Design the sequence.
């Protein structure tokens, strides 16, 4: 009898473990252009997030005056001048598609720009690190304190740090719920404990997730929870600029002193002095000199750190910088560097963005504020009347997206000598009933259409709804059936 | 769970310990259920004991154990229904107090009455009139403009409330007499009057039939209910014979059958079975189906 094969015989386990326990990272503070960019983007992103609900937008009497409001109770979404109804949810679909393609485009041009500068996980973790640094001190201090035993002062520091973290997290959750109700009113209600339970629950959830994800899980989210690193690895190409250690320039590494000696005798020597500053500042705790890797969020802080060192030792900056493998190889072969932002990939992405974005803007600009939907009766489909004529019943839904009541006339076109009657409505003229549509609402009415018997089995019928005051017209088609 | 592993020996083929049990040279391998499974099983037993104590569980001779919490799904339903009625109360009150015309003129009340009427119609009226109220032979189509007992809101409400030939004192009365069975008319006369009736609505007549005789018979026997002009009489439920709508059928054979044996379809009275507000909603719903009269 043959010995059965075990799984380990077939799959040698040499990829390392799928998950390694989190090792504590103590990123060092750094200054430079990328750090400055990150501060500015953080201020912009958080500023928008925290304060946008307070921006007002005048929509007239009776309508909410909050610039951005997701009014779930009334099924309306307000975004500045735009007001969307539930059936216009495809704008969000379009927005999501555009957002995805923008992400692809950023990836094709500059790698994980999103991860490094804009992702909420990055922004909040960065903010939490800033708090930690402010309270506990920089890298060395924090490392020393982490190794120490318990002291009163240490306890006070930790208490302060977690309090600030929790306050930020709580404000994050608080800002979130403000998007779903009138912000000033909700704040008043929250303070007096009159707010709906769901608001408190969401503040609780977001406080918890912000505190946990930005305070404790940090780079673990990027490495293990987020799908984007894995997706972007499949989307990238060799031309995309990534934060890269230019090993053609950096290797061989040697100490500053040794490098000077070797240079003096004309030996080849790299610029990297192995100072490990790039590792010390990295928020995910990696060594960029090991090449592109999943854990790298490409925030550029190692570029700042390396540049500072290069300036000090009098070597050219950007030993670490935005570059790609193609250029490294070209330089090694003595060819000039090339950068190709315009490639098939970026052009196609841009075209898709322009196409979908343009279609959305066009649709939004020509958005109908008067709409009509029709549903033909199914049971019975058609009815014979006493004089031999035929009646069809329809359920018609009128949508008035304007902020005021309006009078509309309903006309029917198609079957010969068609007469229209709306249940519950006074007909001004028998063939043209008029109804009042309430502002910003839908109105569903039963509409009966009578026509001569001499129509074929089924003819198209069109309902025209005309705003008497503004002249806006909406139409919808159905069929008129003879029994 | 007894662990027999130490009693048994190791099975050479599988390398698993045996329980030591052997039948006809066949040994039982000791592969017990996983411990977590066993403990989960025990936990469910303990849980069920607690459940028996807390909730109603054991049937007794004259009832059942009530449980510590006194829980009852029926009581819970009552609470839910009370809550529902409270929520609906205001709107239903408005429906109860408004007149039929007011309901039809008020879009919110009309929508409410139509929604309520549709459900109640499905439960009570659909067996005869069909789910879409299209009716059938002997059961009027409620979507058209022909109304035996009148098509105004009030007339429809009255018909629903008291019915027709329902035995209710307020209900509609009036039967189509059985002229043939009673011996009032001969077979020939019935054929003559049937063909005359068909001519009233412009239908073809059998060649050779004396329509003038039919007209004479009609004038003597039928005008009392159906009227001089044969347009019918909603007071008696006598149908209009000049239109294109036939409750039992407008072909010659069916008309002959109707004249011979008479007709007397029954619409039950719903007062007492449905509350007045529900009947009101029903009347508005039925009126809106075909626009009433």
Sequence:
């Amino acid at each position: 009898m043959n010995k059965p094969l075990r799984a380990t015989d077939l799959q040698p386990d040499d990829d390392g473990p799928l998950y390694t326990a989190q090792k504590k990272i103590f990123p060092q503070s750094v200054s430079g252009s990328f750090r400055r960019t990150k501060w500015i983007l953080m201020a912009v992103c958080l500023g928008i997030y925290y304060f946008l609900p307070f921006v007002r937008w005048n929509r007239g009497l009776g309508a909410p005056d909050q610039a951005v409001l997701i009014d779930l109770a009334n099924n309306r979404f307000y975004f500045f001048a735009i007001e969307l109804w539930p059936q216009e949810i495809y704008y969000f679909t379009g927005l999501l598609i555009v957002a995805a393609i923008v992400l692809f485009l950023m990836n094709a041009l500059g790698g994980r720009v999103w991860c490094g500068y804009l992702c909420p996980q990055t922004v909040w973790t960065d903010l939490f690190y800033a708090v930690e640094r402010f309270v506990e001190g920089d890298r060395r201090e924090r490392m020393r304190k982490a190794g120490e035993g318990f002291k009163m002062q240490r306890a006070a520091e930790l208490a302060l740090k977690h309090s600030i973290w929790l306050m930020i997290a709580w404000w994050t959750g608080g800002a979130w719920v403000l998007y779903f109700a009138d912000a000033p009113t909700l704040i008043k209600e929250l303070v007096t404990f009159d707010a709906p339970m769901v608001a408190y629950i969401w503040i609780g959830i977001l406080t918890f997730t912000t505190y946990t994800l930005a305070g404790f899980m940090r780079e673990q989210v990027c490495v293990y929870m987020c799908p984007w690193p894995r997706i972007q690895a499949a989307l990238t190409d060799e031309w995309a600029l990534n934060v890269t250690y230019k090993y053609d320039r950096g290797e061989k590494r040697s100490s500053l002193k040794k490098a000077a000696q070797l240079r003096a005798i004309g030996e080849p020597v790299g610029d990297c002095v192995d100072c490990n500053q790039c590792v010390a500042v990295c928020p995910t705790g990696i060594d960029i000199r090991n090449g592109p890797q999943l854990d790298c969020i490409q925030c550029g802080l190692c570029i700042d750190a390396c540049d500072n060192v290069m300036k000090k030792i009098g070597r050219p900056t950007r030993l670490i910088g935005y570059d790609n493998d193609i250029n490294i190889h070209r330089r090694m072969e003595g060819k000039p560097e090339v950068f190709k932002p315009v490639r098939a990939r970026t052009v196609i992405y841009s075209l898709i963005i322009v196409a979908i974005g343009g279609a959305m803007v066009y649709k939004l600009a020509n958005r109908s504020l008067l709409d009509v939907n029709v549903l033909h009766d199914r049971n019975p489909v058609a009815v014979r009347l006493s004089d031999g004529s035929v009646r069809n019943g329809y359920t018609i839904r009128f949508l008035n997206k304007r902020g005021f009541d309006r009078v509309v006339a309903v006309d029917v076109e198609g079957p010969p000598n068609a007469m229209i009657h709306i249940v519950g409505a006074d007909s001004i003229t028998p063939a043209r009933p008029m109804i009042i549509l309430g502002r910003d609402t839908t109105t569903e009415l039963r509409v009966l259409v009578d026509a001569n018997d001499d129509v074929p089995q089924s003819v198209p019928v069109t309902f025209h709804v005309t705003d008497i005051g503004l002249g806006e017209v909406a139409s919808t088609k159905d069929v008129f059936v003879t029994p | 769970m007894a662990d027999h592993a130490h009693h048994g020996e190791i099975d050479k083929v599988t390398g698993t310990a045996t329980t030591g049990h052997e039948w006809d040279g066949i040994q039982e391998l000791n592969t017990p259920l996983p411990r977590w499974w066993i403990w989960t099983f025990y936990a469910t037993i303990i849980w069920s004991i607690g459940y028996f104590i807390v909730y109603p569980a054991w049937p007794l001779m004259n009832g059942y154990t009530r449980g510590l919490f006194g829980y009852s799904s029926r009581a819970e339903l009552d609470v839910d229904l009370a809550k529902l009625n409270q929520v609906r109360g205001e709107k239903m009150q408005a429906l109860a107090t408004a007149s039929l015309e007011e309901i039809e003129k008020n879009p919110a009340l009309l929508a409410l009455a139509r929604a309520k009427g549709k459900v109640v119609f499905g439960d009570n009226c659909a067996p005869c009139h069909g789910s879409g109220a299209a009716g059938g032979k002997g059961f009027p189509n409620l979507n058209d403009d022909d109304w035996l007992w009148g098509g105004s809101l009030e007339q429809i409400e009255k018909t629903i409330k008291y019915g027709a030939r329902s035995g209710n004192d307020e209900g509609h009365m009036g039967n189509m007499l059985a002229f043939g069975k009673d011996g009032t008319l001969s077979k020939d006369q019935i054929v003559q009057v049937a063909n005359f009736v068909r001519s009233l609505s412009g239908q073809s007549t059998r060649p050779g039939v004396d329509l003038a005789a039919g007209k004479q018979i009609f004038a003597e026997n039928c005008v009392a209910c159906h009227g001089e002009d044969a347009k019918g009489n909603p007071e008696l439920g006598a149908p209009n014979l000049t239109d294109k709508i036939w409750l039992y059928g407008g072909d010659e054979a069916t008309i002959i059958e109707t004249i011979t044996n008479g007709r007397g379809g029954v619409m039950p009275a719903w007062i007492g079975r449905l509350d007045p507000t529900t009947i009101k909603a029903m009347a508005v719903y039925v009126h809106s189906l075909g626009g009433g009269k």
Remarks:
- The mean pLDDT of chain A is 91.
